[in-house]
Amino acid sequence: MWKSWDYLHQPPGAETEQSQATNVIPDLSQAMKYNPDLRVMLNAGYFDLATPYYEGVYEMRQLQIPQKLQANIETHFYQSGHMVYANEASLKQLHDNVADFIRRTDNEGGR
Known about the structure:
Layout: E1 8-9, E2 18-19, H1 25-34, E3 40-45, H2 55-61, E4 73-78, H3 88-105
Parallel strand pairs: 3-4
Antiparallel strand pairs: 1-2
């Protein structure tokens, strides 16, 4: 399946599809502005060899969104690598954090 991936994507505001490294940050910015109630949860391992440490936080802070929407983003770091779930203790923390996030942000009982 990966061999047929074409990397074409038309970011918000672009007139045509672009063939480049995948970057959905403009799409996330657009989605958060369109739905100001959208909540985002970022999970990362401290020892990630695929994504530089703190890169996700940096990217979230660069989103082209009103400052007040930054409060809709929460971040969790784990004593693991890129695949947080491969470390048993981190997997439990990840599970608990995601379950809590879903409980707090669902349409029935969200904040």
